Amino acid sequence: MLAAQTRIETLLIVRHGEQALLTLIIPIALLIGMSTIHIGDLPDPRVNSVMPRILALAVMSTAFTGQAIALGFDRRYGVLKRLSATALPRWTLISGRVLATLLVVALQAVVLSATALLLGWSPALTGLLPGVGLLILGTLAFGAAGVLVGGALRPEIVLALANAIWFVLLLAGGLALPADDLPGPLAVIAGFLPSGALAEALDAVMVHSALPGAQPILVLLAWGVACGATALRTTRLT
């Protein structure tokens, strides 16, 4: 049952046009543009510094924005209510969504990595395995935030709010520009946002071959736990 549910959820994500835009087209376009156009003071090859931020953006797009919007409209059309009335256990429904999101993030990572390699990307090989762990942690943290937004509000509000939050986290989280290039207080705030924390941690392991540090890990854990705990109390099936 879990395998079947995961397959269905994955296909629904991959086949959805807006999801494809969020998960692949926008990240690939930004990866190519930010690696070839000289915006900000980055060492050559620029793709080495850009790639961790684009990976963080891809995780945010899939696990937060995509899941929030999908959950909001699933509630509107009674999908969750009908599934809860079947023999499918609730843990299977939840686990299927989580696994599907992780599979899509893995697909994003592969496609983005292939594109980055063509642009001259040379990651620190010792940071690849820790990078996988960070991608999983980031997916779970953003996924919890997506459930929080998509599980309690009307779908029209979810659609607008999820996209607005996506833009805020893109700009204020140091994804469009490095955190050091952000003006004044934004440079400090970026490290305490989940997008900035994930980008910082990925940059440490993949570019500098160093440990990610305690702060970004704790920030991701705090956001994940806080959003998950709140979502448990506020999420409705309809």
Would you mind describing this structure in some detail?
This protein is mainly alpha-helical. It is built from ten helices and no strands. The two termini are 23 Å apart. The mean pLDDT is 89.
Summarize the structure.
The chain is built from ten helices and no strands. With about 240 residues, it is mainly alpha-helical.
Question: Whole-Å distance between the termini?
Answer: 23 Å
- Helix tally equals 10
Q: What's the average pLDDT?
A: 89
Structural class: mainly alpha
Key attributes of the depicted protein:
mainly alpha, globular, ABC transporter permease, 10 helices, 238 residues
List the helices and strands and how they pair.
Elements: H1 2-15, H2 17-36, H3 46-76, H4 79-84, H5 90-118, H6 128-150, H7 155-172, H8 185-190, H9 194-206, H10 214-234
Helix pairs in contact: 1-5, 2-3, 2-5, 3-5, 3-6, 3-7, 3-9, 5-6, 6-9, 6-10, 9-10
